[in-house]
Amino acid sequence: MDTQKHYPPVFSFEFFPPKSDEAAAKLRETTSQLAVLKPRFCSVTFGAGGSTRERTFETVVEIQETTGIEGAPHISCIASTKANIREVLQAYQSRGIRHIVALRGDMPSGMLSAGEFRYANELVEFIRAETGDHFHIEVAAYPETHPQAPNYAADLRNFKRKVEAGANAAITQYFYNAEAYFRFVDDCEKLGLALPIVPGIMPITNYSQLARFSEACGADIPRWMRKRLEQYGDDRKAIRAFGLEVVSDLCRRLLEGGAPGLHFYTLNQAEATLGIWRNLGLGMPA
Ligand code: FAD
Questions:
Q1: What number does the ligand 1 atom closest to the CA of 155 have?
Q2: Whole-model pTM?
Q3: Known catalytic residue: 122?
Q4: pLDDT digits (tens, 9 = 90+) for 213-262
Q5: Distance, CA 158 to ligand 1 centroid (Å)?
Q6: Atom number in ligand 1 closest to CA 103
Q7: Fold of domain 2-279
Q8: What residues pair up with 265 in beta bridges, in sequence order?
Q9: Which pLDDT value is given to residue 220?
Q10: What average pLDDT does the segment 45-62 reach?
Q11: CA-to-CA distance for 71 and 13, rounded, in angstroms?
Q12: Which sequence spans correspond to the domains of the chain?
């Protein structure tokens, strides 16, 4: 774990592009509340098959220009052509964006052509070939194994391909099992992969939504947590309080165990992330 240590730890926040004027106003409020924590960067997700291409672009550029925090768009390559991706990269370069989260993405239902990229390592390779060192490239990592991978070892080998293609850092899928993260990082180190692997943190505020997300992305909610969350039923306040305690403990363990930072999946809400931040005693950056 030692090569992972990073002082001070780096924090980043993830948002999704808003769908309405009202949601955009709410996001502006959220980003201004979180920008004071001086994250290393703020990332903005990309809808499957390019469905949010313009909104991702506008949102990330607005965040970077209004808060002064580095904006990092997610780009997914599935169902894209090289010409599409080239155009997107050029647009970001022209607006001073230097940080990218490079993903394969998932095939949108109803879309038939997989495009010119099969996996994220091909996207990373393409970004490097087209733009050299312009972008700091983050890729996704799966301590609990990507749901489509045949097994853990194959998934780890595939993760290595993305690193060898030129990724600078990785963000993990969320998890509630710190042990899975530490083992994954150790296994990466055994393969000679020295890049920072930052845990993705999903605050818990809504159990049915969390159960749905977890089912889709293969994140495990440990049985003891499930039982407690089920017991609270519709009591949102109790769910939030329990979530805050559990996720703060997880973050504390991860940082104490040498994680180089934390990446928060904010779901465009500031409160849960701020609560964890306060519990960790991180204070206000100077
Ligand atoms: P890959 O690294 O390509 O892996 C996908 C699968 O293929 C894995 O099972 C892997 O083992 C296998 N594989 C990889 N390379 C090879 C190879 N060369 N040969 C054979 N098998 C291979 N989705 C979105 O749509 N938009 C987003 O904005 C978004 N943001 C995300 C941010 C983070 C931090 C994370 C962790 C996930 C995000 N996702 C997003 C979800 C992601 O797109 C899905 O998990 C997707 O299924 C895999 O993307 P990937 O980049 O990890 O793919």
A1: 11
A2: 0.97
A3: no
A4: 999 999 999 999 999 999 999 999 999 999 999 999 999 999 999 999 99
A5: 10
A6: 51
A7: TIM Barrel (3.20.20)
A8: 14
A9: 97
A10: 90
A11: 10
A12: 2-279
